[in-house]
UniProtKB/TrEMBL annotation:
<keyword id="KW-0677">Repeat</keyword>
<dbReference type="Pfam" id="PF13424">
    <property type="entry name" value="TPR_12"/>
</dbReference>
<dbReference type="InterPro" id="IPR051685">
    <property type="entry name" value="Ycf3/AcsC/BcsC/TPR_MFPF"/>
</dbReference>
<keyword id="KW-0802">TPR repeat</keyword>
<dbReference type="Pfam" id="PF07719">
    <property type="entry name" value="TPR_2"/>
</dbReference>
<protein>
    <recommendedName>
        <fullName>Tetratricopeptide repeat protein</fullName>
    </recommendedName>
</protein>
<dbReference type="InterPro" id="IPR011990">
    <property type="entry name" value="TPR-like_helical_dom_sf"/>
</dbReference>
<dbReference type="InterPro" id="IPR013105">
    <property type="entry name" value="TPR_2"/>
</dbReference>
<dbReference type="InterPro" id="IPR019734">
    <property type="entry name" value="TPR_rpt"/>
</dbReference>
Length: 398
């Protein structure tokens, strides 16, 4: 890479990987590049995004703090660390860490219940899917574990850990799995830990193993690159108070100057495609951070472009969900119906049917709620939603 001379190319490539929901690939690219550009704020902000979506919250926070050390006026880092520190997210994070503690204590049923609640509140963090699947496995609910991990892979299509677990669980040979989980995962990914992993039943071994992976955080290849970044972050500032959380909250697109300038230099369809990527990234990031007004604004722009491509599909689903979470049921219903019409048989088809049923129930349309859930059950049996309390209550006499 010529000592980082082409960092902007790598930044753009990593950004595209994030937009394609390939967080693991983006992380590898950024970790390699940031070793040559340890004070590049655009790279560090993008690195923070990867860590955040993967569920590496402490590292994401460390990246934002490093950006603010380099430039206290950096608006992107200020906004994101501000939302990270909000009471609502801190409450979510505290419950998440308690769920991980329950896994460490082998209290899998309690952890499972907590993680299901947390996933219902925010469905964008890959680590929640990883640990929830392991809890299902520990409780011998193998089909549910498979479903949850498949959902996790939709958020990070390059996640080797989830792929390995899915491949192993598909064998349906628990004795073989028990012998291979520790060998295959720990030797491949563990980065310096003194905690022993005892050979036990499949679920216990898997849960302990992945919890160790979560704590160590990176693969051996990533670890070497991360050492450079870790050294840079080691002396960062302690706290940044009085962060303006309202800055650029409601207006579509608030950053990144480099990409925006790159857009303006283009024309025609290339410009439109770049613009679509910018609005999608801003909207999806806002959704992840709980800034639903900004998410609705930016994702609405992408949906209105009506390109019919991957980003258009993703934007439509998250626009529907943003409206649903804001209890704007009329618009949520319209967008879920639009998704079902435009993108049948795709990743979020069963999700859209389920939440359409929830919307119908919330607006007093009980018959339509039953119809939506019945269709979901028909096209995607054992999809995971059938075990929810809502599904059971609506369909109990059906």
């Amino acid at each position: 890479m010529g000592n980082g001379a082409n960092w902007s190319i790598n930044w753009q490539t990593a950004l595209e990987k994030i937009q394609e929901h390939n967080l693991s690939a983006a992380l590898e690219i950024i970790l390699e590049t940031v070793g040559y550009e340890p004070e590049n704020m655009a790279l560090i902000n993008l690195l923070a995004d990867c860590y955040y979506y993967l569920g590496e919250f402490d590292r994401a926070k460390a990246c934002w703090e490093e950006v603010l050390r380099l430039n206290p006026a950096n608006q992107e880092a200020k906004n994101k660390i501000g939302r990270y520190k909000t009471p609502s997210f801190q409450s979510w994070l505290k419950r998440y860490k308690h769920a991980l503690y329950n896994i460490e204590q082998k209290n899998y049923e309690a952890a499972l219940g907590s993680l299901r609640e947390l996933l219902g509140e925010n469905d964008g963090f890959v680590s929640v899917y990883q640990f929830l699947g392991l809890c299902y496995m520990a409780c011998a609910e193998y089909d549910q574990a498979r479903i949850v991990w498949q959902k996790g892979l939709e958020r990070d299509i390059g996640n080797e850990t989830l792929s390995d677990y899915l491949n192993m669980i598909s064998d349906k040979n628990e004795k073989t799995l028990d012998a291979t989980v520790e060998e295959k995962q720990v030797s491949k990914r563990k980065v310096g830990t003194n905690l022993p992993i005892q050979k036990a039943a499949l679920a216990l071994t898997a849960a302990a193993c992945l919890l160790l992976l979560f704590k160590t955080g990176v693969t051996p290849d990533q670890g070497k690159a991360f050492q450079n970044q870790d050294a840079t972050l080691s002396g960062q500032v302690a706290a940044h108070e009085a962060i303006d959380e309202k800055a650029a909250e409601d207006s579509p697109v608030s950053s990144n100057n480099l990409l925006i300038e790159e857009e303006r230099s283009r024309g025609g369809s290339d410009y439109d495609l770049e613009k679509e990527k910018v609005y999608y990234r801003e909207g999806y990031n806002a959704y992840q951070e709980g800034n639903l007004k900004k998410a609705t604004s930016n994702l609405g722009v992408v949906v209105s472009m009506n390109t019919g491509n991957y980003l258009n599909r993703e934007a439509l689903y998250y626009l529907a969900r943003s409206c649903y979470l804001q209890k704007n049921y009329e618009e949520a219903e319209a967008y879920y119906l639009q998704y079902l019409e435009q993108f049948p048989g795709t990743n979020y088809y069963d999700d859209s049917l389920f939440y359409l049923g929830v919307v119908y129930d919330a607006t007093g349309q009980e018959e339509k709620a039953v119809e939506a859930l019945t269709e979901m059950q028909r096209i995607s049996p054992n999809c995971g939603y059938e075990s929810s309390d809502f599904f059971k209550s609506v369909m109990k006499d059906k």
